[in-house]
Amino acid sequence: MSLLLQYGIIVSAWILSLLMILVIPRQKRRLAMVAFLFKQYITCIFGHIVVELQLLAYPVREFAEVNRTSFAYEYMAFPMTCAVFNAYYPSHRSGWIQFGYYVIFTTVLIIGEVLLQQYTDLIRYVHWNWFWSWATIFLTFLMTRAFCVIYFGTMRGARYI
């Protein structure tokens, strides 16, 4: 795949991530912002650990001189998806529906990652596979949701969850 097309995918990821702001309901924007920032924080840590241990590589990336991770994925696309995840989380539904919500969001992200891994140079599995990505994404969704519940649960009268 040409380098120009791969950078086009990166730009598209930025544009789609920014457009996701439009689907977040006004009353859930504070929750979405907290989820976005927390997800950026933990994704930054996990992303750097995985890259430094040479489990994953991002051969084509923005800011290549500064950062060996994918800036678009780690700092925008993934956190924005988590913001939408939390804004629409089915907190008043059964545990199975909530679990399915985690599984669906995680699986959709992994399908996209696997396609990028197979057909582009945007991500390369070195000592990694799709299952490890699935597990870490699931875990970070879970951690972010727990953080939001605790954060907003400690605020008196908060109705964001």
TrEMBL record:
Keyword Transmembrane helix carried by entry: yes
Keyword terms of this UniProt record: Membrane, Transmembrane, Transmembrane helix
Highest taxon in the source lineage: Bacteria
Transmembrane segments: 6-24, 31-51, 71-89, 101-119, 131-152
NCBIfam families: CBO0543_fam
Protein name as annotated: Uncharacterized protein
